[in-house]
Specification:
Low-confidence stretches of chain B: none
Number of strands of chain A: 0
Order of helices and strands of chain A: HHHH
Order of helices and strands of chain B: HHHHH
Radius of gyration of chain A: 24 Å
Structural class of chain B: mainly alpha
Shape of chain A: flat
Low-confidence stretches of chain A: 92-98
Largest sheet of chain B: none
Helix content of chain A: 55-70%
Shape of chain B: elongated
Largest sheet of chain A: none
Oligomer: heterotrimer
Strand content of chain A: under 5%
Mean pLDDT of chain A: 85
Largest interface: A-C, 41 and 58 residues
Distance between the termini of chain A: 30 Å
Chains: A mainly alpha (about 100), B mainly alpha (about 140), C mainly alpha (about 500)
Mean pLDDT of chain B: 88
C-alpha cells in the first residue's frame, strides 16, 4: 500500500510539473497583444449593437452569434433532468436494492 | 419545518424572488444577467417554497404535468425560433438576416428573436431546476 | 426535392431526433404512438442521410453551413463533407434496427411506461448529439455536444431496472466527467494560443504558433487524447466500459458500443487531423502514444474478453479491443490506414450492434447470462443465433464479411508505413477475436440443449436482427459506396 501511494505521488508530481511548464508558456494574462484579441473579439465589441440590436454583448454572443451552442446547452439541462428522472424514479415493485 | 417565522417570511418573500427572476430574464438583453441566471432565480423561489411548506404542497401548486410540458416545450420553442430563419429562406437560427425587426436598443423588445428565445430558455432552466429538485426530494423520502 | 430542404438538410438531420425527444415526454403514456414516432424518425433519418451522401458525392450541397448566417470566425459553421455524411449514414443505419428492436420490448428491462418514454428520449438526444458531432466544425461546439452525449449515455446505463445499474452509471459518470474536464482544458489551451474557436482558423494559427509554445500544444493534445480516450475507452482508460456496457438495457448497449464511442472518436480525429496537422502529431510523438495504446488494447483486452464468462461482458471487452484497432489505424498517418480505420469504424458499429442485440435477446428469453449456460440455443432460436454467428464471422474478419475489408485496409496501411509489428498484431487480434467468439457459436450449435423453452422473438425484433446481418454481409461483399466515402474522408483529413 505504501509503495503504491508513493508511485501515485510521483505520477501526480510529474503531471503537475509538466502542466506548470505548459502554463509558463501561456501568453501573459490580460496583455493587449494576446492571440485572443483578434478580429473576432473586435467585431463582437464594435458591431454587436448594430448587428443584433442588443446592448449586452454577452447576450449578443450567447443568443445570436453562437446561438447554436446555447441551443445545445439548454439541451444539456433537458438531458440532465431526464437522466435524473430515469435514475431516481423507482419502477413499481422494485423497491430498494441500490 | 414547522417554524412560524420562517413560513411567514418565506410567504412574503417568494413573490418578490419570482418577480426578480422574471425581471432578470426579460432584461437579459440590456443588463447583466440573462435567461440562465433568471431562470435559476425563478426556480429558487419554488425550491424555497418546497423546503419550507413541504414537497406535497409544492406539487399541489405546480403539478408534475406542467413541469413536463414546460421542460419539453421550452426547448422546442428554441428550435421553432430557429426554424423561423429556414422558413424565411436563410440559415437556421438567423435573426437580423431573417428580416426580424431588431427593435429599439435599450428597451425590452431589443434584439428581435433574442428576447423571445431568452424567455423560452429562462422558463426551461427554471423548470429543469425544479424538476431536478422535486425528483431528488422524492428520492429522499 | 424543394431547395429549402436540400439546402438545410444537415440542420434537419440534427434537429429531427431532438424535436422528437422534446415531444416524447408529453406523450409518455401512449406507447404505440411513441414507437411509431420513433420508427418515423429512424426512417426519415436514413432517407435524409442517404440523400446527404448522394448530394455530397455529387457536389450538390455547399460544404459549409453557417449557423445564423454569421461567417466563420464569428459564428458557428457546420462542415458538410465526406466524413460528416459518412458518419451520419452509419448512425442512421444503426438506429433504425435499434428502434425496431425496442418495439414492445422495453418494459421488462427499464420499468414503467414513463421510464420507457424517458429512455427513448435519452436515445434520441444521444443521436442528435452524434449527428451534431459528425457535422460540427467548431471547438466549443464539440464540447457542448460531448456533454449532451455523455449525460445521455450515463442516463441510458442507469435506466436499467437492475440493482447494479446505478453503481456502474456512477463510476461511468465520474470518469466521463473527468474526461469532459480534460477535453475542455484542451480546447481552452488551443483557444488561448490561437484565438479562434473555428477549426479551420485555429489550424491556420496553430501551424504558426506551435514553435513558440510547443509545450502548450503538446499539453492540449495530450488533454484531448486523454479526455476523448476515457470516453472512447482507449485501452488503459477503459475501466468504466465493461460494467456500463454490459449492464445497460440491450438496445442501449448496442448504441453505446456501436455508436457513442465512435462519435467521440470522430471528434478526436477532427481535432487531430483538422486542427493539428499530421506533421505536428508526429513531431510531438502523439502518434506513438496512440499506436502503443492501440496495440496493447488489441492484445490485452482480447485476452481479458476470453476470460469473461458473462456474454455481454465478453462483448464489452471486445469493444475495447476493437477501439484499439481504430486508434492503431489512425496512428499510421497514411491514406489507406485512415480509410481502413473509417471503414472498420462503420463495420464495427454494425457488427457490435448485431452482436449485442442478438446476445441480449438470448439472455432475455432464456434468463441465462453466462456463455456456458447457453449451450444448444442454436436449435431453439435459429434466427437469433444465425445473426450472432454472422456477426461473429464479421468481427473476426473472415472474407466476404464486413470486418475483413476494414482489417485488410488496416493491414495495407501498416505495411505501407513499414510497421510489421502492427501488421502482426492486427492478424493476431483476429485470432484472439475468434478465440472469444467462436466458443459461443460452438456451444450454441454443437452441444446438447440445456434450455428447455426458448423461441425466436417477434417480427419487429427478427426484422431488426436480419437487417443488421444483411448489412454485415453487404458491407463485406460490396463495400462500394461506404468504402469510397471512407477513402474520400481519409483523403480530406490528410491533405490540408
Amino acid at each position: 500500500m505504501k509503495i503504491r501511494n508513493l508511485i501515485f505521488l510521483l505520477i501526480i508530481l510529474l503531471a503537475i510539473f509538466t502542466m506548470l511548464i505548459a502554463v509558463a508558456e501561456l501568453p501573459p494574462y490580460g496583455s493587449p497583444d494576446n492571440p485572443v484579441h483578434n478580429m473576432v473579439t473586435e467585431r463582437y465589441i464594435n458591431k454587436a449593437l448594430e448587428e443584433t440590436g442588443v446592448n449586452n454583448i454577452v447576450t449578443a454572443i450567447v443568443l445570436d452569434y453562437r446561438a447554436y451552442d446555447t441551443l445545445f446547452e439548454t439541451i444539456v439541462l433537458f438531458t440532465a433532468a431526464i437522466a435524473v428522472y430515469v435514475t431516481l424514479k423507482k419502477a413499481k415493485g422494485s423497491e430498494g436494492g441500490e | 419545518m414547522r417554524d412560524f417565522v420562517l413560513k411567514r417570511v418565506v410567504a412574503v418573500i417568494i413573490p418578490f424572488i419570482s418577480l426578480y427572476g422574471f425581471y432578470v430574464i426579460l432584461h437579459g438583453a440590456i443588463s447583466p444577467g440573462g435567461s440562465f441566471a433568471g431562470g435559476i432565480i425563478v426556480a429558487l423561489s419554488v425550491i424555497a417554497f418546497a423546503t419550507i411548506f413541504g414537497l406535497d404542497r409544492a406539487k399541489e401548486k405546480l403539478p408534475e404535468k406542467i413541469l413536463v410540458w414546460t421542460d419539453s416545450y421550452g426547448t422546442l420553442w428554441y428550435v421553432l425560433m430557429g426554424l423561423v430563419g429556414i422558413v424565411k429562406g436563410v440559415p437556421f437560427l438567423s435573426n437580423r438576416l431573417a428580416g426580424i425587426n431588431l427593435g429599439v436598443p435599450g428597451t425590452l423588445s431589443a434584439g428581435g428573436l433574442i428576447a423571445l428565445i431568452g424567455i423560452g430558455v429562462g422558463i426551461r432552466v427554471a423548470s429543469t431546476m425544479i424538476t431536478l429538485f422535486f425528483t431528488m426530494m422524492e428520492e429522499e423520502k | 426535392m424543394p431547395a429549402v430542404i436540400t439546402a438545410n438538410l444537415p440542420v434537419f438531420l440534427i434537429i429531427l431526433p431532438l424535436i422528437a425527444a422534446f415531444i416524447l415526454p408529453t406523450i409518455a403514456r401512449r406507447q404505440r404512438l411513441q414507437e411509431n414516432l420513433l420508427l418515423v424518425v429512424g426512417s426519415l433519418g436514413l432517407l435524409g442521410a442517404g440523400y446527404l451522401v448522394y448530394l455530397v458525392m455529387h457536389g450538390g450541397i455547399s460544404s459549409v453551413y453557417q449557423m445564423g448566417g454569421w461567417p466563420a470566425p464569428w459564428g458557428i459553421e457546420l462542415q458538410v463533407d465526406n466524413l460528416a455524411s459518412f458518419f451520419l449514414l452509419v448512425v442512421a443505419l444503426i438506429i433504425l434496427p435499434v428502434f425496431l428492436y425496442s418495439r414492445r420490448n422495453m418494459a421488462e428491462e427499464v420499468g414503467s411506461r414513463e421510464k420507457v418514454a424517458r429512455f427513448y428520449v435519452l436515445i434520441l438526444l444521444l443521436i442528435g448529439a452524434l449527428a451534431g458531432m459528425a457535422l460540427t466544425n467548431d471547438l466549443f461546439n464539440v464540447y457542448v455536444l460531448v456533454e449532451v452525449a455523455t449525460i445521455s449515455c450515463v442516463g441510458l446505463v442507469s435506466s436499467r431496472n437492475h440493482p447494479l445499474s446505478a453503481e456502474a452509471a456512477f463510476r461511468y459518470l465520474i470518469l466521463a466527467t473527468f474526461g469532459s474536464a480534460l477535453i475542455l482544458g484542451g480546447i481552452g489551451f488551443i483557444y488561448i494560443i490561437t484565438g479562434h474557436l473555428n477549426m479551420g482558423f485555429a489550424a491556420q494559427e496553430l501551424v504558426q504558433v506551435w514553435q513558440y509554445r510547443p509545450h502548450v500544444v503538446w499539453m492540449a493534445l495530450i488533454f484531448l487524447l486523454a479526455g476523448f480516450g476515457i470516453k472512447a475507452a482507449l485501452f488503459p482508460l477503459h475501466l468504466w466500459l465493461p460494467d456500463a456496457h454490459s449492464i445497460a438495457p440491450t438496445p442501449a448497449s448496442a448504441l453505446l458500443s456501436g455508436l457513442a464511442v465512435k462519435g467521440y472518436l470522430i471528434c478526436l480525429f477532427k481535432f487531430f487531423y483538422r486542427v493539428a496537422v499530421p506533421f505536428l502529431l508526429q513531431e510531438l510523438a502523439i502518434d506513438k502514444i496512440m499506436k502503443w495504446a492501440g496495440l496493447l488494447g488489441i492484445v490485452l483486452a482480447s485476452l481479458m474478453a476470453i476470460r469473461q464468462d458473462e456474454l455481454k461482458r465478453r462483448l464489452a471487452f471486445s469493444t475495447v479491443a476493437q477501439i484499439g484497432y481504430l486508434f492503431l489505424g489512425a496512428s499510421l498517418m497514411n491514406t489507406r490506414g485512415l480509410s481502413g480505420t473509417f471503414f472498420y469504424l462503420a463495420s464495427h458499429a454494425v457488427i457490435k450492434s448485431a452482436l449485442f442485440l442478438s446476445a441480449g435477446m438470448m439472455i432475455s428469453v432464456t434468463g441465462k447470462k453466462k456463455v456456458s449456460q447457453l449451450a444448444g440455443i442454436g436449435k431453439k432460436m435459429p434466427v437469433t443465433t444465425a445473426v450472432f454467428t454472422i456477426a461473429s464471422l464479421g468481427l473476426v474478419g473472415v472474407p466476404l464479411f464486413s470486418g475483413f475489408v476494414g482489417k485488410w485496409y488496416l493491414l495495407l496501411g501498416a505495411l505501407d508505413s513499414g510497421d510489421f509489428l502492427s501488421a502482426l498484431v492486427i492478424i493476431a487480434g483476429s485470432v484472439l477475436c475468434a478465440a472469444y467468439l467462436f466458443p459461443v457459436v460452438r456451444l450454441a450449435y454443437f452441444e446438447p440443449a440445456e434450455i428447455k423453452e426458448a423461441q425466436d422473438p417477434g417480427i419487429p425484433q427478427k426484422l431488426a436482427l436480419v437487417f443488421l446481418a444483411v448489412l454485415v454481409v453487404l458491407l463485406g461483399v460490396m463495400p462500394g459506396i461506404v468504402l469510397e466515402l471512407a477513402n474520400r474522408a481519409a483523403l480530406d483529413l490528410l491533405t490540408p
